[in-house]
Amino acid sequence: MAETETESAKPQSKYTAKYWQDQLGYYRQAIETKWSDQRKNLDKLYSRDERADSADREYAIFWANIEVLKPAVYAKPPQPAVVPRFKDGNLIARAASETVERCLVTTFDQSDIDGCMREVRDEFLRYARGSARARLATRNGSPCVEFDHFTAADFAHGVARTWREVPWVGFRSWLNLEKGVARFGEVFRQVPRKKRDQNAAVNDPEDQAPVWEIWCKDSGQVHFIAEDFDRPLDETEPWLDLSGFWPCPRPAYGTVVPGKLMPVPDIRQYKDQIEEINEYTARIAALSQSLRLKGFYPAGAGEISEAIEAAIKDLDNRTVLVPVSSFAALGGSSFKDSIVWLPVDQIAVLIKELVELRRVLIDDVYQITGISDIVRGQTEASETATAQQLKAQWGSIRIRERQNELARFARDMTRIAGEIIAENFDGKTIAEMSQVQLPTLAQKQQLQIQMQQAQQMQAAGQPVPPIPAKAKQTVESPAFEEVLQFLANDKARGFLIDIETDSTIQPNEDAEKQRRTEFVTAVGGFIAQAFPMVKEAPQLGNFVGETLKFVAQGFRAGRPLEGAIDQLVAQIEEIASQPPAPPQPDPTEQVKLQTAQVKGQAEEFKAKADMAQTQMDMQQSALEHHQSMREMEMQAMMPPQQVPVQ
Fold first, then answer.
1. How far is CA 192 from the centre of its chain?
2. Helices 562-577 & 509-536, crossing angle to 10 degrees?
3. Residue pair 138/144 in contact by the 8 Å Cβ criterion
4. What pTM was computed for the model?
5. 126: closest CA among 264, 251, 272, 278?
6. What DSSP letter does each residue of 501-565 carry, written as one string?
7. Bigger pLDDT: 411 or 637?
């Protein structure tokens, strides 16, 4: 009994079905009701689907403006650009950035983000708001990210002055009985179902129930509410842990009512001009119908008024002459007046005036919308290149806000998709999607052991087994497990990785060439000036390397070369860390020194040769003296010769 009293005394959550029905009602009252009528009228005006063939002529300037702006504000799918936020050579952050970028490239291609962005763009241009979200799904047994566009009627949010103050966002899905029961159980059989198309037949077994999936920041939960049902279908914790909580970015907004997130379609700014243009177009068409050459000639009895009326109503251009019985009433008397022509000069002059007035109004529309003739591909032969460049620059400035808004939306979608991949994908899926060539911890440890053994064997004088050429580079590279651990850390990833997107508008080839040329010129000039400084003063290597990265980061064209620039900077720093080489002597002094060395060597050779000659002479003299003494001794030992008697 005490337990029952405690449970009854427990305060109930305010997030009941009635609470959310009231919140959705506030949104409809504040935004949806009025905006929905505007969207319906714009759809009719844009598609002209319900326009009768017999209606007055209209000038399709609204459709033309939208078609011109479509490729101008979004022309190609976003390309993710994931880079380390700080350029301090963090190898793990760099490897993680490359891994996430590769996964995003694969995701964008497989999940067709381009189709989703085009639907957002179309609603953004027509209704001044476009919305979509990223969703964790499963494809072929593996996790994936899907991108869902929600029409203006299927997206709602809490009433607030600015988007930062919005407390909840809701996405409406239409579920048939089978899917509803599979998701929410048997309670879904009690949910009333209805037609998405009010004109469709009733009592269709495929009737669907509108179910709102509401992400509420205040409760920190996801609520599932069915329209016209008094009980919540489900209430669960968010299955995505996102930094912004919501699985969608801020919608792409055009003009909004200040202090109220009420979109204002652009056509509201030039609605009066369009009505006048259509009025002039209808009058021009009506006058053009009567602008035909008609002549009257004498005929039998009849009324002239009936003849003139018949001539005007006759749409057959082959009927030029009309018979009139009372020809005298036209003033014809002589032969030359036998045919009286219907006056059309006044009609032609009036048509010209109406065409000119309409042209002025059309120019007013282009001034209001900012769609210049350069944007529409129109120009005049008399305009100089400078004038065309100024007009193109002005035209791009007027539509740049729209371009930036869609680029911001694409960037936010990319960041949400990156978070989903980093926090919910397993290592096998990330490896298959990214195809990064990173070693595992086991491979790094094995190579480290091989390198240590090789060093020990080399020190002992033993033969060293062959080691892979890139073993040192592999050991210094971050392991794949380290990258996964880094990506799973929400704080580290958010602090050290920056996710952006390249431009989503069609690039101008000449402008791209100019940017690349400017980049090469700037970097080439800097290298030509800075590298001799490093050669003379290696201690400046670190400063020169960081300055080179600073220069390159200022050019969009240099982004693909950031990795190569970092490697070059590392080489510069390595060169700077080596001891300075001895100063090289002056070339002239070096020649003199070499000449002196050669001369000294020649003199030394000559002295040695003279000494050797002197020694040889002394040895020869000693030998001759010894020979002479030997002969004298031999003579002294011989007996005296007999002198013959004469």
1. 43
2. 10
3. yes
4. 0.73
5. 264
6. E---SPPPHHHHHHHHHHHHHHHHHHHHHHHHHHHH-GGGHHHHHHHHHHHHHT-GGGGGGHHHH
7. 411
